[in-house]
Structures are given as structure tokens and as C-alpha cells.
Specification:
mainly beta, lipopolysaccharide transport protein A fold, seven-stranded antiparallel β-sheet, 2 helices, 7 strands, 11% helix
Amino acid sequence: MKRLLISLISATALMCLAQERGGEPAPSRLAGYMEPGTEASGVRAPYYDEQGNLQAQLYGEHAKVMGGGMAEITNLRIDVYRDGQVAMTIFAPKCFSHMDESRETPGKKVLSLSSEGAVLIELGEVSIAGRGFRFTSEDNRFEILHDSKVLIKAPARSRNGEGL
């Protein structure tokens, strides 16, 4: 049987999109993807804003549904877009995704990602590395929890007069 390219992450992305656009996904179509023990390889889940512009794209080498709306993702990469271009990329060897109820909007689903492992963020001339992270789609906040280090690739003196 051909491996599924859709996992809980894709299903949660579809649920978020349907929720934002005022619709409900068909439960029967998503239910099969959320059974505990379901696994998928080659995961890709795009996220769009209200105007249909690509905001981010999540990739995972492998995902496994844990139950309770949670999935474990290995070799995570998230490309964050600005003006149609990749502005930032986030890498993590392992993380967990979970669908939660919004604190601010009852009935709205919120995607959360978390990990206690290594994380690397590539942002142009800056790289940020650390251990452990949290992200929630409710406030689009990405937080490195421990041992964060910033590496500036270009020397400060060559930044064409940009101040600190």
C-alpha cells in the first residue's frame, strides 16, 4: 500500500483552514488520519492567511499519531514566508504537535508545537540555536526554552552602517 502523504499535521492544517473560513471539515474524511498509531512519511502541511497567501509550510520526515489530538514528528522543518519568499526556516529533530481549543475564541482550534530537543532557526544572516521550544498558532509566537545562542554570519562592521 502506498504510504500516506497526509498525517495529523495535514489534517490539523485542513481543520484550521476550514475553521478560519467558517466551514467544518467532513469528520469522516479526517477521522481515519487521527487514529492512534497511524503513521505517515513525507509530511507536508501548508498554512495560508485569510487572503490565501502562503504563510508557512511544515515538513516532517515521519509523523505518528499518539492519540488525544497529538502527533510526534521527526526531522521537522518549517519554512516561514514573507512576501512570497522564505524569510525564516526552523529545524528540529523531533517535536510534538497538538490541537487545542482557543483560549480567546471558543470553538476555534489552535495548533501547538513543542519539543525538549535541539532547535535551529535560520533567519538570513542570523542563526539561533537552542534546546526546547514552544509554538502556538493562536499568537504566532515561537519561543526557545533553554540555552539559546545567536550566531551572526556577517561581521557587524560590514553591515553597511546598520546600528545595533
